[in-house]
Amino acid sequence: MPLQQSLAYGAVLARFGATVERVGIVAPSGARGRAQVIARRVGPLGLRLLSRGPVWVAAPSAADLETEAGLALRALGRRFRPLVATPEIAGPGLPLVTPGHRALLDLAAEPGLLRSRLAPKWRNRLVRAEGAGLDLRLSWPDAPTVARLLAGDAIQQKARGYRALPARFTEAWIARDPRSALLAEARLGAVRVAAMLFLLHAPWATYHIGWAGAAGRQVHAHALLLWRSMLHLRDLGFSTLDLGDVNTEDAPGLARFKIGTGARVAPLGATVLLPFL
């Protein structure tokens, strides 16, 4: 259940005026999956977007997955014209953007096994953070705290030259259901030195925003925040933590941090314009 295919994602975009359409994928044997399509206008053009879908009721076997995904995407291309898709699995269509990769962390394993999967350097940073006297707090987020985190993230985006979902999306997500997000904060004494925000869309959760001040970076607070959040999400029953894009060219340090958790680097399909026939 990637974020972009969750019902909550569609509900938030609908609040901003997007048209959200959800369709079932059915085979003679019964229901196979579903897809969430978002309609948007780009200048005079009306486009429909399918991001990281379809999702399956039960994953097809490896032998059938490519065939079933291709059939589903062609059917969606006939239903929605034009349709731009970034599927989880490579499929048909005119390529527009080359494939990306995501870091997906399996939370089903026991804590000891999760820790053993950490890269040695990552584990060493975690040990140092555990001995730094950090006060960690995991909670449902409140609006003032999220506003501070978003302000810090906006400064980071400008300094590092990256873009994320707009702040109003995060605010609307939390306003819709405060328990659909997890806030992790680290403090040294009374000073907040690092924070992370996760969006919850069971059975997956998605890393959404992270911030760290100079003191937090010095003691590797993010390693401890992420580790404790992994264990907490596991205890809540989440199966997968999506850590986001892996870009070894433009953000190699961040890519190493994500991969060092033991996450699987999963390729996405290319962004394509689906055929109409």
Strand content: 25-35%
* Molecular shape: globular
CATH topology of the largest domain: Aminopeptidase
Could you give me the name of the CATH homologous superfamily of the largest domain?
Gcn5-related N-acetyltransferase (GNAT)
Briefly, what CATH class of the largest domain? Alpha Beta
What is the CA-based Rg, rounded?
Answer: 20 Å
The figure for the number of domains is 2
CATH architectural name of the largest domain = 3-Layer(aba) Sandwich
The assigned structural class equals alpha+beta
Report the count of strand segments: 14
Oligomer: single chain
Unreliable sequence segments: none
Query: What gap, in angstroms, lies between the N and C termini?
Result: 28 Å
The main β sheet shows up as:
7 strands, mixed
Mean pLDDT over all positions:
90
What's the helix count?
Answer: 9
Tell me roughly what share of residues is in helical segments: 25-40%
String of helices and strands: HEEEEHEEEHHEHHEEEHHEHEE
